[in-house]
Amino acid sequence: MASQESHLTATLVTSILGAVIGSLQIGYHTGNINAPAKIIEEFFNNTWRARHNQSISDHSLTFLWSLSVSIKDFGALLGSLGVKYLADSYGRRNSILIVNGLSVVGACLMFASKASESFEVLILGRLVFGLFCGLVMSLNPLYIQEVSPTNLRGAFATLNQVSFAAGILVGVVAGLEIVLGTEHDWAMMLSLSLIPALTQYVILPFCPESPRYLLINRQEEIKAKSALLRLRGRAENVFAELEEMKEEAAHTQSRVTIQDFFKKRSYRQPIIIVLIVSLGSQLSGFNAIINYSTKMFQAKFDQAKYLTLGVGAVNLTFTLVAFFLMERAGRRRLLLTGFISIAVCNLIMTVVDSVLKICGAYVYLLFMIVALLAFTFTWIRLPETKGRTFDDIAEEFRGAEGIPLHNKTVFNTFT
After folding, report:
1. What range defines the domain where residue 24 resides?
2. Of 164, 256, 289, 311, which is the most buried if we count CB atoms within 10 A?
3. Cβ atoms of residues 212 and 348 within 8 Å
4. What whole-number distance in Å separates Cα of residue 161 and Cα of residue 2?
5. Residue 39 maps to which CATH number?
6. How large is the average pLDDT for residues 24-41?
């Protein structure tokens, strides 16, 4: 179809880049807390000593540090609950702009923690930023996929992850002692995410809203057509894509209850797939290494911070590899490669490492098992989506429930 032959336009590129700045912020605050761990822990200790005239116990210090690191992820869990309401009520682009305010507030609180001599303010700042993470981690891919043409959707979706990986690397670099990870500058280092946050406020207002949202959610065909014309640049592409959206809208139920998700296989299958793939990614051990690699390496290496920098560099490198291979190799093959690779890495970590207090080096075996389970499920149940429209993919799941398919070229995944 004509829409599948769409090319890059200035508006499309600007819209994608404007959105992925949010992922850059998330990556930055994932990587920057790692290297300066000892300095921030000393800030906790000094604050405690000023209040209680005694040093904080090792147990309490470990708890406060773990809370500071993990509270962002807890905030992300809470924030994710509000995605549907925001996206459907205010649109994809506008919702990104709204939640970006949480990033600004979170960064300001983290910056103010040192001046206020309050580790509670730092923890609160990480929590507020976590709310931003949970919202934008869903809003960004949603906006990117809905403004992207089919032939570029996979690459642009990966660009979101490239931005996240780049943010991790920048955060690790900024947290080094030779850069800003010092007793004097660590608070300023935590606030540097204000720069991309404010940049997003400059760029996104000039980008179009998602045409799919305008047509399917708001029934505003004229605005959807105008947005598509800005994104695609060619009237023939706009007409074909609008027809695809209308066909999809005809198959979309306006009101879907929670009960429907559990009763209908066409809903249940994609939900299970999303859950397994997401859990496989999040529980694969990657987050543990990114958040605690400096502490892990310190047991055996003097320059642990630079090994952490190497982790960030390798992460960015292979994210770029995925970006360039996405439309050639396909999503499914790359996902399978990722799961089996991280399973092998966890096995290697088990063999060479013994520094952890609770499960010892065997904790990596738990991560390895999760990665292998996710690999197996992906191999058996996940269809390839490369080059498919949203309606083609939806028809695959409708076919799982015995609903006749309009498109005869199907994955046959569920039959």
Report:
1. 1-251
2. 164
3. no
4. 28
5. 1.20.1250.20
6. 90
